[in-house]
Amino acid sequence: MSIFNVYLTGVGGQGIGLLSGALGTAIVDVGHKVLGCETHGLAQRGGVVVSHLRVGEGAYAPRVPPGQADLVVSLERLEGLRGAVNMLRPGGRIIFYDAEYQPIAVRMGEAVYPKVSDIEAEVASKGGTVERVFDEDLSDPRMQNVALLARVAALGAIDKITPARLEKAIAASVPAKLLETNLEVYRRNLGL
Amino acid sequence: MSIKQNLTNPEPWAGLAMGNEAVARAMIEVSTRVITTYPGSPVPEIATTLNLIAPEHRDFYFESSTNEKVALEVATGGSLNGHLSTVFFKSVGLNVASDSLIQLSMLELIGGLVVILGDDPGANSSQNEQDNRIWARMSYIPMLEPGSPTEAYQMYKEAAALAKRQRGPVFLRLTTHVCHAREVVQFAAMSGEEPDWTPRFDANNGPYWPIAAAVFPLKRKALQKLQAYEALAEESPLNRVLAPHGVAPVDSKRLGVISAGIPAYSVLENIDQAGATVDLLKLGITYPLPSQKILAFLEAHDEVVILEELERVLEGEIKALAYDNSVKCRILARPDWDQVMGEFDPVRSYKLLAGFWPKAFEPRDFPEPSAEVVPRPPQLCPGCGHRSAFHAVKKAIESDTITVADIGCHSLGSLPPYNMGEVLLCMGHSVSTGAGLAVKNDTRKVVSFLGDSTMFHAALPGIINAIIYNHNVTLVLLDNGTTAMTGHQARHGSGEIGDKIPIIGLLETLGVQKILDVDSYNQRKLIAYVQEANAHEGFAVVIARHPCMLKFTRASRKKSPGLKLPKIAVNPEQAADALPAMEQFGCPTFQRTEDDQVGVSEDLCIGCGSCIMSAAPGTLKIQRPLAPAPASAPSPDGAKSPGAKSPGGVK
Question: Does residue B527 carry a pLDDT above 50?
Answer without folding.
Answer: yes
